[in-house]
Amino acid sequence: MANIVLLGAPIEAGAGRRGCAMGPAAYRTAGLAEDLRALGHTVTDLGDAVPDDTGPIEAPFSHLKALPTVAGWTRSLHRHAQDLARGPALPIYMGGDHALSMGTVTGHAAAAAELGRPQFVLWLDAHADFNTLESSPSGNLHGTPLAFACGQEGFDSMLGGPLPASIDPHNVCIIGLRSVDGVERDLLRASDVTAHDMRAIDEHGIATLLKEFLNRVAAANGLLHVSLDVDFIDPEIAPAVGTTVPGGATFREAHLAMEILHDSGLVSSLDLVELNPFLDIRGLTARLMLDLTASLFGRQVLDRPTRSY
């Protein structure tokens, strides 16, 4: 049984629209802690993080949105994640938009470097989030965290200096891609990131793709951070996200991924991102994200309760 800590990250400044700040409250209201405790885990809720006050930050490009706010969140969450990664508990970061991963992933990478172990990242997402500050077409910073974590240039304003430790792109796997910007695509192809789009899932199955990556993590004695974006899932069953892209993972594909991750025993930290309760339908998406998290932490098909919505 796991010792789990929950930390809210009510950030919406990276998304370009309101609503993701309500995500942590939605997870609590839907019963995330209670579901995990019912599986036998110890769960401690640390409340919500707050962003650092960075003072004025001059944006290097005029189209960037909310750079000082996102930088404040990045610095705060980086510090929280590094501290939590040094401890015995498995942290779950309840978002909040995907810009929160600029802090969580880099904080875990810094702690992994202290341990002398490689940090791996599984990015379950319709988007690569591999834009730089310069290449981002929208200026919304939730499209940049993976590029930042992998050491792409131009991000010094986020932490106020260079990254303590970056992620080796070879240790990153994205699954679920179906919307990638033009320059972002070029950056991704020039990197050593493993990127599987939905066609790869259609042709090979999500189990094959995921197990290949997990075998690499295990062989390297790596630490594994999973970042689960709501838009990894098809919007027909997970509508509460501001960046809907048709053709995402099905209910069973998403659950199978979580079940395989549980069986591997490799997951050391988890992001739950881009839940926008303002766009949800009777809590449908929040409950689905809770069910997926429960599968990641050991709930089996035969254990799943029937609920009326």
From TrEMBL:
GO cellular component, one term: cytoplasm
One matching Pfam family: Arginase
Molecular function GO terms recorded: arginase activity; manganese ion binding
Catalytic activity, EC: 3.5.3.1
Keyword terms: Arginine metabolism, Hydrolase, Manganese, Metal-binding
Alphabetized NCBIfam families for the sequence: rocF_arginase
Name of the protein in its database record: Arginase
Organism (species): Antarctobacter heliothermus
